[in-house]
Amino acid sequence: MEQIYYKSTRGNEKLVKSAEAIARGLSDDGGLFVPTSIPKLTVELNELKNMNYKELAFTIMKEFLTDYDEKDLLESIDKAYDEKFDTGIIAPLVKHGQSYFLELYHGPTLAFKDMALSILPYLLKNAVKKLNINKEMVILTATSGDTGKAALEGFANVPGTKIIVFFPQEGVSEIQKRQMLTQTGDNTFVIGIEGNFDDAQNGVKQMLTDENLLKSLEENNKMFSSANSINIGRLIPQVVYYFYAYTQLCNSGEINTGDAINFCVPTGNFGNILAGYYAKRMGLPIKKLICASNENKVLFDFINTGIYDRQRDFVITMSPSMDILISSNLERLLYAMSGEDSKKIKNLMDKLKSDGKYEIDDNMKKELQDFFGGYATEEDTAHAITEVYKNTNYVIDTHTAVSYAVYQKYLETTKDSTKTVIVSTASPYKFTPDVMKSIDAKYIGLNDFELIKELSKITKGDIPVGIKDLETRPVLHKTVCEKDEMQIQIEKILKI
Ligand SMILES: *Cc1c(COP(=O)(O)O)cnc(C)c1O
């Protein structure tokens, strides 16, 4: 098997193995680790069709993690995708009306972040063992709502780790906030910041490369890693479900093996859709990756003009996990599009920092043809929830609704009849006020917990375990800080 190494998007830093890339999270030069080549699938699509989620995960992930022992990887997969998920299928593909939805929210925190964060702690644990690291791992995480809880669940009580999560105090749903603030585990820390997700992510990225801070960590026998999708260990497990969606379509007779399909992905930090792009490069027949944005439509503008411009108002929408103006993982795509020209990428990223915008050249623009960019307004999003419910009785969450609405626009614009999977990233239980209001105005005014019960009634389904007793769980985390005080908080927690 070909050995895969990892390198930074921004420099000619030495090559590292996947364990080191995962342990470090971010490269010292601020760049993101990328594989030296995207491995090609070594088995036929036909053979994948008989695999369950775990078998498929092993087949895909071992191609990227060539330095991991196969036994360790198998064990990690086995522990990650277990009864924490409320279905043995793990990521079911369902059809409602003419639409296909890939439900990625059956994990413990009810959002797609569980797909990667249920395995990342094991990958990290193995990395620490392989690299002979005897330091305490401090996992720094910025969250727009869902990563935080999924990372807390994954790392709570894991020996040798602390998990510290920063979330925008005013930028997450009530349920998301409560899920995080009630987190148990002595090694868990949750801090609200007076700022938005970009502020939180910038703060985390800054600390991960701050020389002085890194030095005092070193002196105290600690080291940082990240649970954000800047960590390549988040992306690799996400490649799996693109294949899994495909094999489910084959097995249900909706497509023939080899047919190309589209995916429509509700996008924020560009991690999920980038995993789809990696799946395509591995050999999965994908025609278009439809990038669905909400009103924070930087990516829509970028895909349509080649200009990335974050200088605009940050909009708080009903799909808060996509309220992002600086999409970190786009850097990995740019790197691929530029023919792996790290100097060029460094220039673009420096420009983004200093001028708030950059433009790619014509050669790079040509490479954007794998993607279609669309966006949904708040009205479009609400309308999508209403329409899907009215026509099929299926309830989708606000992020999935953005995806659905953008897919309708894609259909109108392109008339492309290729079968398209709408990637469904969260359970409607996490965003009940906007979901239920779109279904019927009579729900306006009820609180989140009353709405959870109403949703359970209309779907005739049980309330998911992850939020069942949320109302009565005690709030354990109360710290709030200014956006420029994140480092002070870290120093306090770590006593450094
Ligand atoms: C994180 C998240 C997204 C955005 O995914 P990215 O990988 O950041 O593009 C979309 N929907 C939900 C529910 C999320 O939690």
Placed side by side, the strands forming the largest sheet appear as 3-4-14-9-10-13
**Ligand roster:** pyridoxal-5'-phosphate
The percentage of residues in β strands lies in 15-25%
Architecture of the domain at 93-109 and 233-468, according to CATH?
3-Layer(aba) Sandwich
Strand-helix topology:
Blueprint (H helix, E strand, L loop, with lengths): L5 E3 L9 H7 L8 E3 L9 H4 L4 H12 L5 H11 L12 E4 L2 E5 L9 H5 L2 H11 L5 E7 L3 H10 L5 E8 L5 H8 L6 E7 L2 H12 L2 H9 L2 E5 L5 H20 L9 E6 L4 H12 L3 E8 L4 H8 L1 E3 L20 H8 L4 H14 L1 E3 L2 H5 L4 E5 L2 H15 L5 H17 L5 E5 L7 H8 L8 H12 L5 H4 L11 E3 L3 H9 L2
Parallel strand pairs: 4-14, 5-6, 5-8, 6-7, 7-15, 9-10, 9-14, 10-13
Antiparallel strand pairs: 1-2, 3-4, 11-12
Bound molecules: pyridoxal-5'-phosphate.
